[in-house]
Amino acid sequence: MPELPLWAALPAAVLLIVGGLLTLIGSIGLLRLPNFFMRIHSVSMGNSLGVGCVLLASMLIASALAHRPVIHELLITVFMVFTAPITMIVLMQAAIKRTKPPRK
């Protein structure tokens, strides 16, 4: 197995720890917050930032081991950036319609 250089290992470790903590905080918010609207905000913010940190760490490690820029993870990032907000908007609209009183 190839050796990972220290200049890549340290920032990648920090990014993985921060990404894990952000994802954990978002997931705890999902369990602890009182209503759907607050829960959806904590999950969308925490988990999106956490995934971003993990993807950056993955790009850094892969680039260091391949001795060239590896940007395959950008496709995952683009997919997350486009789909996560759209999913959250659709879920929020459904929740708003479900909680509104019926019109007379």
UniProtKB/TrEMBL annotation:
The regions listed as transmembrane in this protein's record are 6-31, 43-62, 74-96
Q: Does the keyword Zinc apply?
A: no
**Pfam families assigned to the protein according to its UniProt record, in alphabetical order:** PhaG_MnhG_YufB (PF03334)
Instruction: Identify the InterPro entries for this entry.
Output: PhaG_MnhG_YufB
State the UniProt keywords alphabetically.
Membrane, Transmembrane, Transmembrane helix
Can you name this protein?
Answer: Cation:proton antiporter
* Organism, as annotated: Steroidobacter gossypii
